[in-house]
C-alpha cells in the first residue's frame, strides 16, 4: 500500500508541474498590454497576466473575508451551558 501512495504522490506532483508550465506559457504568450477603463475617464494599462493575477487575488481576499466572518460569528455565538460539565 505504501508503494501506491508514493506513486499517487509522484503523479500529483507531475500533474502540478505540467499545469504550472502550461499556465506559465499562457501568461508569456498573453503578456501584451490590456487597458481597463473605469468611470470618469480613468484607465489602467497593465499586462494581461497582471490583471488576471489581481482579479484572482481579489477573489481570494473576498472569499477569505466571507469565510472568516462566518467562522467568527459562529465562534462568538453564545454556547448553551452543559449541565454535566464542571464550571
Structural account:
The structure is a single chain. This protein has a two-stranded antiparallel sheet with strand order 1-2. The chain is mainly α and 87 residues long. It is flat. It has helices at 2-29, 48-76; strands at 33-37, 43-47. It has two domains: 1-30; 32-77. The chain starts with a helix and ends in an 11-residue tail after the last helix. Helix content is 66%, strand content 11%.
Write the layout of secondary structure elements.
Elements: H1 2-29, E1 33-37, E2 43-47, H2 48-76
Antiparallel strand pairs: 1-2
Characteristic key phrases:
87 residues, two-stranded antiparallel ribbon, single chain, mainly alpha, 2 domains
Strands in their spatial order, largest beta sheet? 1-2
CA-CA gap between termini: 47 Å
Q: What are the segments in which pLDDT stays under 50 over at least 5 consecutive residues?
A: none
Helix percentage range: 55-70%
Give the SSE string: HEEH
| Overall average residue pLDDT | 85
The number of strands is 2
The percent range for strand residues is 5-15%
Radius of gyration: 23 Å
Shape: flat
Q: Largest sheet at a glance?
A: 2 strands, antiparallel
Number of domain units:
2
Oligomer: single chain
Helix tally? 2
The SS-based structural class is: mainly alpha
Q: What is this entry, summarized?
A:
With 87 residues, this protein is mainly α.
Amino acid at each position: 500500500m505504501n508503494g501506491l501512495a508514493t506513486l499517487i504522490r509522484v503523479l500529483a506532483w507531475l500533474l502540478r508541474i505540467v499545469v504550472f508550465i502550461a499556465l506559465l506559457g499562457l501568461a508569456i504568450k498573453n503578456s501584451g498590454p490590456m487597458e481597463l477603463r473605469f468611470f470618469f475617464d480613468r484607465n489602467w494599462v497593465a499586462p494581461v497576466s497582471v490583471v488576471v493575477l489581481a482579479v484572482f487575488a481579489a477573489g481570494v481576499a473576498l472569499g477569505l473575508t466571507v469565510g472568516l466572518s462566518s467562522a467568527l460569528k459562529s465562534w462568538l455565538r453564545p454556547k448553551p451551558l452543559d449541565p454535566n460539565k464542571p464550571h
